[in-house]
Amino acid sequence: MSFSAILVGCPQLPEGDGDEHAVPAALADLGFGVRWASWDEESVDFAAADVVVLRASWDYAERREEFLGWCESVPALANAAPVVRWNTDKAYLAELIGTGLPVVPTELVKPGDEARWPGSDFVVKPSVGAGSRGAARFAAGAGEDARAHLAALHDDGHTALVQPYQSSVDTHGETALVYFGGIYSHAFTKSAMLGAELDASGLYLTETLAATEPAAELRALAEDTLDAASALLGILRAELLYARVDLVRGEDGAPLLLELELAEPSLGFRHADPGAPLRFASAVRQQLA
């Protein structure tokens, strides 16, 4: 059997950032004809493809409603449009906190509202954003600078997130656990990104990645996170072609959820074992059923 698959980028990255270099061949082995396309290419018939996979649509933050409208026009989109709508606004963290998950404490500050600054170092970032753009770290007591940053986000129409900075990131970074079709595939660490420089595309901050074997307590929290998110979305975990769970450790060493990436995350293929693209291709094939 033969199938058609489109991997989706954006105008700045029409063929992704290079991380998926081994994915097209793995898909071809399972009967897929594969091409890349920017999500806003009017000449491409996305609705005719057997599967359309969001991979590097990282300009969505500036064009979110237009992007979500496009998502809703693509029947075979993975992950599906309702998932993308929910996950591209970090307000979803408040919903996950409501399920009882250990999440980095998060305050949502809408335009016109005043923030309550944590007593330690903290981060202010837009609730809709990709690649850590618009995120800034402030020292305890730096309320004036933080208010200026918050005002700039509000002037751009953004709701902001205020979170205490997790100092473990400076030494241990973040741990990203990757799942395909709801099943664990691999993990990698990410160095601290705040203060890093933008990539040449201007869409995301550069970061240093390395393969890792996550501790049992990290695996357990990632599993709990996928279960909680799937329940909130009213879907089965298997309906998620991919998921990336970003975890950090709190001041007491216990794991905390930093973000759950279900829309267009980098999946760290370059830092995974050679079987990862094959597992991903198998999960894409599963989505057809």
Automatic annotation (TrEMBL):
Signal peptide interval: none
Keyword ATP-binding assigned to the entry: answer is: yes
* Domain of life, source organism: Bacteria
Q: What is this protein called?
A: RimK family alpha-L-glutamate ligase
The reply on keyword Nucleotide-binding is yes
Instruction: Provide the GO MF annotations for this entry.
Output: ligase activity
- The ATP-grasp domain extends over 93-289
